[in-house]
Amino acid sequence: MRDTAEQSGQDEEKSPRERLRERRTAAFRAAERVLSRGGYHGTLRERLTLLQDAAPEVYDLDERADIYGNGVVAALEERVAALLGTEAAAFFPTGTMAQQVALRCWAGRTGDRTVALHGLAHPEVHERGALSVVSGLRTVRLTSEPRLPTADEVRAFEEPFGALMLELPLRDAGFVLPTWEELNEVVEAARERDAVVHFDGARLWESTVHFGRSLDETAGLADSVYVSFYKSLDGFGGAALAGPHTLIEEAKAWRHRYGGMVFQQFPTALSALVGLERELPRLPGYVRHARVVAAALREGFAESGVAWARVHPEVPHTHEFRVWLPYEADVLAEAAALQAEETGSMLFASAWDTGGPGLSFTEVTIRSQGLEWTADDVRAAVADFVARVASVAGG
Length: 395
Hints:
Elements: H1 2-13, H2 16-30, E1 33-34, H3 44-54, H4 72-84, E2 88-92, H5 95-110, E3 114-117, H6 122-126, H7 130-133, E4 138-141, H8 151-156, E5 163-167, H9 180-192, E6 196-201, H10 208-211, H11 215-219, E7 224-228, E8 239-243, H12 245-257, H13 266-278, H14 283-303, E9 310-312, E10 320-325, H15 329-343, E11 345-346, E12 353-356, E13 359-365, H16 375-393
Parallel strand pairs: 1-11, 3-4, 3-5, 5-6, 6-7
Antiparallel strand pairs: 2-8, 7-8, 9-10, 10-13, 12-13
Helix pairs in contact: 2-15, 4-13, 5-12, 14-16, 15-16
Family: Belongs to the threonine aldolase family.
InterPro entries: ArAA_b-elim_lyase/Thr_aldolase (IPR001597), PyrdxlP-dep_Trfase (IPR015424), PyrdxlP-dep_Trfase_major (IPR015421), PyrdxlP-dep_Trfase_small (IPR015422)
Organism: Streptomyces phaeofaciens
């Protein structure tokens, strides 16, 4: 009885927004139909079972476990280097560490600690100033417009910089990419300024459809590339830095100094190899179906009479994109939870964020679960969702 009372008291202490978030999370877990269900949402048992079942397909489990980066970790590094067409690659526990090390190494080689990047780039928005606070680098913003920097902006920037960092795709602008021609022009503009080019390619894996080029051809434009193993490949975590042998050897020394020389990492490395084997070949299909879903969303909102709705980009560049609607975030989150609770289908599973007065956006991701949704399914779900939004907004 006391436990129940204590729980009730704890629930009362939570804000309405916290309780709504917990409801939305529970509704997502219980929903029968979603557009995406990343493995990280699973239980420990589910994650371990998947690894136990899939790992024998990608590595000899009778080999000795890794110690400080050998064995399966070294095999993963070789696989990544081969996929990206680089001389070498180094495994890192996080992308934040990998990119700090890469840019620090380049600063030592160029003699310039200034890094030019986008105002919405991950280090500027999500890493608490790590490039400057931890690594002693200085960042300058080429632009904060919701698109990648242009070649003209690179050429005209008034200060020198030793490295240009490009996030491909730019997540906080809506997972946007430049055209292949624009990307080549930007890289060439940096070269004209004697700057090295580093790709934040956390989601580079799914960019091949938009560019119409292979992974190695895309990575070959840059001097170094970082890729993630969990954002699109559904691994447990981890990242890799790829580039020339000399850079990677130096990066491994800095990895040790930064605390990234982990004793054993075989679960994460194995999950990354599974992701490369299973998810990487599926990503182009996810991208193509994201375009079907995006078109159906636009049509559904138009048919439902929503005064202003946007899917951005209109034709998604990857398997992820944003949806903007003219309502408060809490109204949309409540409607999303209700839809899942009452129909078993959850059209919008990610959080809704405020984008301005009376305007909110969410991110939509298409994975294998989303392939089951036809355009008609999406339009019907939109109609149901809009009716729930109207009911919630009307009180």
